[in-house]
Structures are given as C-alpha cells and as structure tokens.
Design brief:
Largest interface: A-B, 31 and 42 residues
Number of helices of chain A: 12
Distance between the termini of chain A: 47 Å
Strand content of chain A: 15-25%
Largest sheet of chain B: 6 strands, mixed
CATH topology of one domain in chain B: Rossmann fold
Strand content of chain B: 25-35%
Structural class of chain A: alpha+beta
Number of helices of chain B: 6
Oligomer: heterodimer
CATH class of one domain in chain B: Alpha Beta
Number of domains of chain A: 2
C-alpha cells in the first residue's frame, strides 16, 4: 500500500520517464555524448590513480638513499671503495653497490633495464623479494630474475637458460631463477636482475666500479639527516632519497594527468555550453507544457521536481555509464587509450593490469563537475518559466 | 456566492499605448449558475477568465473565490485552488503529447493526491465525451475536436466547483456541441457546478434556462441577460 506522498512521487517519476521517452532519440544522444566526456575524465583519473598506486608498490625496490658519482654534471661509475668513507656515519645500516644500465636486444629491438646487485641478507633485497612472482633472487654467478615482458618478448616459455651479448659480441649465458610479479610491471616489466659480477661482465665494467651505491638506514625517519652527512662526506656525488624519488613520481604522473585533464575539461566545457544553450532556451512547446501543468494545479516545485528528475536521469545515467565504462576500460582493457600518454614512452610498453582503488572524493569531484552543472542547466530555465504567470498559455480573446 | 470580482482592471502595453483588457469589471456569481460571456476577439474575455482562474494578476481590484482573495494567497495555495476548485477548458489544444488520453485526463487528479477510483472516473468521463475507444491513444493520433473533448473530460476529473471554459465547443460539430452542453447541464444539476463560458455562439445561452449573459467590449463588461 503506497502512501499518497509516495504515490505522488511515483507519478512524477512516471511523468518524467514518459517525457524522456517522447524525446528518446535526442536524450539517448545527449546521454552518449555526456557519458563519453565523463568516460574520458574518469579514465584519466583512474589511470593516474592506478599508476601512482603501482609506483608506490614498486617503490619498495627503491633504496632509501642512492649515491651517484657526478662528473661535469653527468653521472659516471662510482668506485665501490667510496663505501669505506661512509663507515663513520652513524645510522647507516648497509651500503650496497649496484650496476644498472640498458641492454639493447637486436632480436626483439627492445631495451631491457639491467640491474646487477649482490644479495644481502636483511638488506633491500628483501624488498625485491616482495615483488617476485616465483623463484628466488640471483644467489650465484650466472643466475638472473626477469620481468614479465622480457620473459615474454624473448619467447622463453619453458626455457630456463638464455644468452645475452657482451660488448665484444661474445655470449653470456644466464639461468632464470625467478620472475617478477605483474603488479610491479610498471617498474619491473623490462627488468633483468643479475649478480654484481655478472652485470659488470655483461657491460664490460671494470671490477671495483658500480653505477651507484644503495644505502639503507637503521631509522627511516633519519633518511634526510643521513643523506646530508653522506653528501658532506662524498663531495662530487649526488645523494637521492626515497622520498625525493616518490615526489618525482607524483610530479611526473600528476603533471601528465593534469595536462590531459585540462584538455578534457575543455571538451567538458564545450558540452556544458551546448547543454546550457539548449536548456536555457526552452522550446515554445516546453514552455506551454509547463504553463498547462501549472494551470492544472502543479506547483512550481512540482515542475522543478520533474525537470530535476529528467536532468538526474540523463546526467546520472551518463555518469554511471561513463564511470563504469572507464573502470572497464582501465581494469579490463589496460587503459589502452590513455596509457601511452600517462605511462610514458618505452620500446617495451609495460603490460599493466591496473586495478585502481576507487576514491569517493574523486567520484564526488567528477560528479560535481559533470552532473551538478547539467542539473542546474535543466532546472534553472524551468524555474524561470514556472515562476511566470501561466496566462501565457491562454491565447486569443 | 462562489465568485466575486471587485473593480478588476488589467492593462496591457501595446504599440506604446496602454490598453485596458479588463476595465473595472465587478460582478458576483452564485454557486450553480451558468454565465455566458460574449464579445469580439480582443475584447478581454480570455483575460477575464485568466484573472478569475488565478492565471494572471489584476493591476487593481480583487477576485474572491469562496470568499478568499486569489492574490492574497501563496503560489502553492493558488495552485491548489486551480487543482481542486477550478476546471479549465482552453480554446486551443492543451494536452500533453507524451501522455495517453487516459493519462491526460488523470493528470490533475494524480498529482492532486486523490487516487482512489481515479481511473474509473476518468474512464467514465471519456465514455461521456465519446472517446472510450481512444483512451490509450496519444493526442497526436486524435483530431482537433477529439482533443477538445479530452480536455473537457480532464476539466471535470476533480469534480471542480467552477468550470472556466474558453470557447469549449469552438471546433466541434453541432451534434457534439449539444452532447457537451448536455454534459455541462448534468454536472450543473448533480454537483451544482458553476460555469463561466466564453463563446461567440449567442444561441447557446438560450438552451440553458436561467443562465446569465454578459458582453465584453474593449474591456468593459456588461450584463445583458439576468438569470
């Protein structure tokens, strides 16, 4: 048994749906265009959120402090012996040399990122272990762990042994001991991790040299202080901290998504200018319909409620459609439309499967920028019309 | 008395001149009366109906329905008055195209919060105006005369005390016109409905004994036949 009030609201909704159905082709077109705009905005939001989340996950690999030797403003190999000059600094737990560089594979025409490091118990290798899908980190000479894309593009499948070329074109054979997780693909997809000795061998780097030194500290809150002391102890080096690296990621993704969002906001603005133009100039038959409804006893609030329902169905439908399509696009289709803009360029495009968390604040922001203006564009003109005397509907005499 | 108009004046600006659409109209209507208003186009008849129905406000003067001044009431109270007390029949098509004939007739009732027996009453009214077979049709599928009859059925749906009719049978044939006026007389007899009818057809007043007739000329209202 419905109450009169509920029945009244149902009647209004029924009237709204009839009215929308009457203009169904136009309304479907508006919903589709509106949904497309929302889809673009929501996709960018989700992709940039997903990438940031992935970056955060992958940053467990990043050392707390990284020391690079700089000569004439460019990075050069750093002597491993520099580590001895840090022994006196209180708070340093461990200093680990690392070799890294790019290996161009002539067969697949792709650049792989190679990292050489020795496994150190209790060190940051434990963090690398966290992003291993299976297997173990290299523990001996001739062992390697690969990213998903390296494994896939080289067509290794069941193969556990493969070879890379040294600079003198002799072959270096490696045995795969593990693969990195898909979830860390943003940073590990094109990665080959070797022992320090193997990486020097692969790149032809003399013993005693590394690309950089990774420093772990006993107390993470002391990272800044320790970094300053290292910079003082090793002039001519660049000392990077994990918070600085995190900030760089945020800036890169934030700038890219911000730039893209500004471009899309222009599309959104164009849509609203058009919809406002449409809504503010009520057609004569719409004005007469409002007048007739008022004459039959509808209150101004009733007219506004129906127009609100109309706007809510169109914009709410477009919002749900756009957001759902964006989520499907990002999660199930790997953000194929926008990832090149947001993830940057690479020969091996990271095979990302983003499952971004949905933030209520983001949804609310999108709602405020899309649904609310559309509602205003439909309700305000109706309010202006319904507030006028209804006598305009009577003609003649 | 159900309607009382006191010194109603309504002016319009046209071609830079002020024109009196209604010029100091004063009259009283008792419940159950038939009032006919004749006059040429532009004489102010429709404006007078608009003033009585609360569709437009007078420049000066008062319209009292059941002793309450229309323009001393809130917009919502005025809407409620139009919904429950007054039935309007316009001289032009006034149906909502998105709704069926039945839904159009139900429109004032559905949103007035009176639901019990509404469908049966609407169906009965459509039978009385000869459109039962068209109840699920849309206005666009009806002729002008049929649309007018739907509007008439709609005007009666809430059993209003007053019917304001602007050329209600303007584009109906003579036979249908007679049927409609029989319907008016039935409502008048059974429910003591008050009718204010604007029409060019001066003959109609003679078919209803006891009706009062007014003429309007350049906004001036004059009673020419007392009931």
């Amino acid at each position: 048994m419905t109450t009169p009030m509920l029945e009244r609201q149902i009647n209004f909704l029924d009237y709204t749906l009839s009215s929308l159905w009457r203009k169904r082709y136009k309304n479907i077109a508006v919903v589709l265009v509106f949904a497309a705009v929302i889809f673009l905005l929501a996709s960018f939001q989700l992709v940039s959120n997903g990438l940031l989340e992935r970056a955060q996950t992958a940053l467990v690999m990043a050392p707390e402090i990284l020391i690079q030797k700089m000569v004439a403003g460019r990075q050069e190999s750093i002597p491993v012996a520099y580590a001895e000059r840090l022994q006196g600094i209180f708070g340093i737990r461990q200093v680990t040399p690392r070799v890294w560089g790019y290996y161009f594979d002539e067969v697949t025409l792709a650049n792989y990122t190679v990292i050489g490091r020795d496994q150190v118990a209790g060190g940051s290798d434990d963090q690398l272990t966290q992003v291993l899908a299976d297997g173990r980190l290299p523990a001996a000479v001739g062992e390697t762990v690969l990213g998903q894309a390296v494994f896939r593009t080289k067509g290794l499948q069941d193969q556990r042994v493969f070879s890379l070329f040294r600079p003198d074109l002799s072959l270096k054979t490696l045995t795969i001991t593990g693969l990195f997780k898909k979830e860390s693909n943003l940073l590990t997809d094109d990665l080959i991790v070797l022992s320090l000795a193997d990486s020097r061998d692969l790149f032809g780097l003399p013993p005693g040299l590394a690309s950089d030194l990774m420093v772990s500290v006993a107390n993470p809150r002391e990272i800044g202080t320790v970094a300053k002391k290292i910079a003082a102890a090793l002039p001519g080096t660049r000392v990077l901290t994990r918070p600085q690296i995190e900030k760089t990621y945020h800036m890169i993704f934030g700038w890219r998504s911000g730039f893209a969002s500004v471009c899309l906001l222009a599309a959104l603005a164009a849509f609203f200018i058009l919809s406002w133009d449409k809504a503010s100039g009520l057609a004569p038959e719409e004005r007469r319909e409002i007048a007739i409804l008022k004459i039959l006893g509808w209150q101004t609030a009733d007219v506004l409620l129906v127009r609100f329902f109309e706007g809510a169905v169109v914009s709410g439908g477009a919002y749900l459609l756009g957001c759902t399509a964006a989520y499907i696009h990002v999660v199930f289709f790997g953000s194929s439309l926008f990832l090149p803009v947001l993830a940057g360029w690479s020969v091996i495009r990271p095979d990302l499967h983003l499952v971004p968390a949905i933030h209520l604040a983001d949804l609310l922001l999108l709602f405020c920028f899309t649904v609310m203006p559309y509602l205003a564009a439909t309700v305000v003109p109706a309010w202006r019309c319904a507030s006028l005397p209804s006598a305009t509907a009577l003609q003649g005499g | 008395m159900i309607i009382e108009c006191r010194d109603l004046i309504k002016t319009y600006q046209a071609d830079g001149r002020r024109m009196n659409a209604v010029d100091e109209a004063s009259f009283v209507v008792q419940q159950g009366e038939f009032i006919f208003i004749h006059g040429h186009s532009g004489s102010g008849k429709t404006t007078l109906l608009s003033l009585i129905g609360g569709l437009t406000s007078p420049d000066t003067g008062q319209v009292l329905i059941d002793g309450r001044d229309n323009w001393q009431q809130s917009d919502n109270a005025l809407s409620d008055l139009r919904n429950r007390t007054i039935g309007f029949i316009f001289q032009f098509a006034s149906l909502i195209p998105a709704l069926t004939v039945l839904e159009n007739v139900l429109l004032p009732m559905s949103f007035g919060g009176v639901a019990a027996g509404a469908r049966e009453r609407a169906t009965q009214l459509l039978v009385e105006v000869g459109l039962k077979e068209k109840m699920h049709s849309y206005p666009g599928q009806l002729s002008g005369g049929q649309q007018r009859r739907v509007a008439i059925a709609r005007a009666f749906i809430n059993k209003p005390a007053i019917i304001l009719a602007d050329e209600p049978t303007g584009d109906l044939d003579e036979e249908t016109e007679q049927e409609i006026f029989e319907l008016f007389k039935t409502f008048n007899r059974e429910q003591r409905t008050t009718f204010l009818i604007v029409t060019h057809n001066q003959h109609l007043a003679t078919t209803i004994p006891g009706s009062r007739v007014f003429t309007m000329r350049q906004g001036l209202l004059k009673e020419i036949q007392a009931g």
